[in-house]
Amino acid sequence: PTITVHHLLTHTSGLSDYFDEEIMEDYEELWIENPMYKIRELEDFLPLFKEKPMKHPVGSRFHYNNAGYVLLGLIIEQVSKQTFSNYVENHIFKQASMNAGYFEMDLLPGRIALGYIEDLNNTWKTNIYSLPAKGGSDGGAYVTAKDMVQLWESLTRYELLNEEMTKYLLTPQVQIDDTTCYGYGVWIKMDKEKVLKYILMGYDPGVNFRSVFYPNNDLRIVVCSNKSEGAFDMISGIENELTK
C-alpha cells in the first residue's frame, strides 16, 4: 500500500520482478513453465510475480523492474478504460506520427522484421517462441529507427506532454552511480551537474535497441537490431564520430 507511481516509474518499488536479472540470465527460461502464447494482456503477467515476497523495502534502492512497469500499464488501463496498447497507439504513436504498434506474434503485419537468435552450433532461429505473444507496458512495441527519432522530437516539442511535465520526466530522480541517473523511464548520463545525454534501451532474445538524445546539441541517434546483440557497439561508434 505504500508503493507510489513514482516508485514504479523509478524502479524503487522493492517489488520482486518476474524476470530478475540478478537471478536469471536467460529470458527464454520464463516460457518453459509459462506458455508464451498465453501472454497477450497485461493481466496475464500477474501470475508470474504477484505471489512473490518483496525484494527490498519500498524506496530503499534502485532495482530495474519489469513487473513495476506492468503495474503502471494496468493503472493506465484502469484510468483510461482502454487497453494499454490501444491507449499508447492512439495517444503516443499516432500523436508522434510513428509507424509503430503492439502486435501479436501470430498476427504480425507483413512489414515486420522477425528477431533472430544464434544457437550454440552457429545456426539461427527466430524468436517467436522466446517472447510473450504480445508485448506490454514493460516493453515489446514494434518500432523503426525513424519512429524513435520522431518520438524524441514530439516529446521535446511538448506535443505529448506539456513543458512542465516533460521537464519533470527528464529530470534525474535516482542516482545510479557517479555519472548515471534515472528519470521517469529514461536513463540519464551526467557531466558533473549537467545532463550529457538521455538513453533509451531494450534487450530481448532476438532483438536489441538503443537510442540516445544529446539535448545540448539537439542530436538524436537510434539503432534497432533484429539480433540479440550489436546495438550498443554500433551506437557507441556513431557517438564517438559525432561527438568528438
Notes on the protein architecture:
With 244 residues, the chain is an alpha+beta fold. It has a single domain, classed as DD-peptidase/beta-lactamase superfamily (Beta-lactamase, 3-Layer(aba) Sandwich). The protein has helices at 5-9, 30-33, 66-80, 84-93, 145-156, 163-169, 231-242; strands spanning 116-118, 124-126, 174-175, 180-182, 187-191, 194-204, 207-214, 219-225. The chain has a 6-stranded antiparallel beta sheet, with helices on both faces. The protein has a two-stranded antiparallel ribbon with strand order 1-2.
Question: Can you tag this structure with a few keywords?
Answer:
244 residues, 7 helices, Beta-lactamase, single chain, alpha+beta, 27% helix, two-stranded antiparallel ribbon, six-stranded antiparallel beta sheet
Please give the structural blueprint.
Elements: H1 5-9, H2 30-33, H3 66-80, H4 84-93, E1 116-118, E2 124-126, H5 145-156, H6 163-169, E3 174-175, E4 180-182, E5 187-191, E6 194-204, E7 207-214, E8 219-225, H7 231-242
Q: Please give the count of helices.
A: 7
Proportion of β residues? 15-25%
Helix coverage percent of residues?
A: 25-40%
Which fold name corresponds to the CATH topology?
Answer: Beta-lactamase
**Could you state the CATH homologous superfamily?**
DD-peptidase/beta-lactamase superfamily
CATH first level: which class? Alpha Beta
Give me the CATH architecture, please. Answer: 3-Layer(aba) Sandwich
Total number of distinct structural domains: 1
**Mean residue pLDDT:** 94
Number of strands: 8
Low-confidence stretches: none
Shape: globular
Q: State the end-to-end distance.
A: 48 Å
Order of helices and strands: HHHHEEHHEEEEEEH
What can be said about the biggest beta sheet? 6 strands, antiparallel
Structural class based on helices, strands and sheet pairing: alpha+beta
Q: Radius of gyration over alpha carbons? A: 18 Å
Enumerate the strands of the largest sheet in spatial order, edge to edge or round the barrel: 3-4-5-6-7-8
